[in-house]
Amino acid sequence: MSMTSPKRVRSRTSRRLAALVSTPLLLAVTACGASADGGEDAADSSGETGKLVVWDWKSGDPTAQNYFDAARADFEAKYPDVEVEYVAQPFDNYYTLLGTAMESESGPDVVMFNGGAQIRDRVDSLLPLDDYVGDSATRLTGWSSFQTDGATYGVPITLQGHPFYYNKAVYEAAGLDPETPPATYDELTAACEAIAETDNDCFALGNKEGIGIEFHLSAYGVGVFSTEQYDAWLDGDRDWTSPEVKQIFQMWADQNEDGWYNDGVNSTAMFMDQFTKFQGGTAGNTIGLISDVAHWKSFDEFLGEDLGVFTPPQVTDEGGSFLPADGGIGYAVTDWTADPDLAYELVESLSSTDALTAFYNDAGAIASDTTIDASDSGIGAADEIVSWLPESRPVLHSALSAETLELMHRLSQQLVDGDVTVDETLEQLAASDQ
To answer: Do the beta carbons of residue 307 and residue 168 sit within 8 Å?
Structure first.
């Protein structure tokens, strides 16, 4: 039996009393998750038997198998009689399926989430975890992406960020110094002009899903916004009519018009066609990730010593040049789970140091666990990224709602096609972001 703090005991008791006086809710809970088996097989008040269901999009990934094996071993050592079922959902419609489950209050007990809008827009169906996190609050970092209105709804397991990756061989072929990547936007423009004289694209980009504009906003916003504007944006005080915001979106349109990207941007999927193009050596740059996909480890497998990385270039006098990064993916507990304490114990195992060490070693995920030494991977790009983390700031697009992000996706495609102007785009985004 697990040892629970007084706060956990009170929390559990109050939730169970509420369930007893709410028969429809109790019936809904017994249809799924920890109580799916019913009767003696259901999770009892001791939390020693029963079943938990986890939804994610990673448990079928070969590079994550040692991570899940370590998490399973940790949990089974504490609760050998509890069955845990991992359901790997397709990422393309993951949040649609999850939305359906949440509407009916049925489905998983523990849910994998992207940090930012995806979890913040669904907190009504999630359990606040502040009474549970304990020592994890200091062991893990990246919490801000899983918090809203002063409450914590998810536990981060990775960090996510947006560095500029570049191919040193493409730079050298264009007559550029492969060891001196662009530090300013003027230098990046000059590099793209030089690369255009070769058979390569300056940037690999896929915007079929519309996600490219998220990476663009968060990466170039670093170099455009002053510290005060950056803070205001993250705090929700966003002026979509400001010259700086217009500059960022105008850069998106101008870069496409100036031929920085590969052909067919809106018909090219970001995952994984954009990154396959970069790995194939036909593009000088790409804005990638630091988590477990489209990142330093996968790029190194193809480019080796030709792989370089740099922080977003400075664009304005007030802008900076640092890595935009915060919590990447993490786990939440649904508010209909029959035993919240038991469900959180599983989250503890999924965010344990042994499990996250395996995730870093095998998948290259920069883990949220600050006790894991990721400073000597043997891959130069990774070592540079880790050295930038102490000065990183949260990514700009994670502050936006899912509704505004979806609109921004569509408008970014229309900007590429020339169907809307930057001013029209910002007017619609401002109205959405109220």
So the answer is: yes
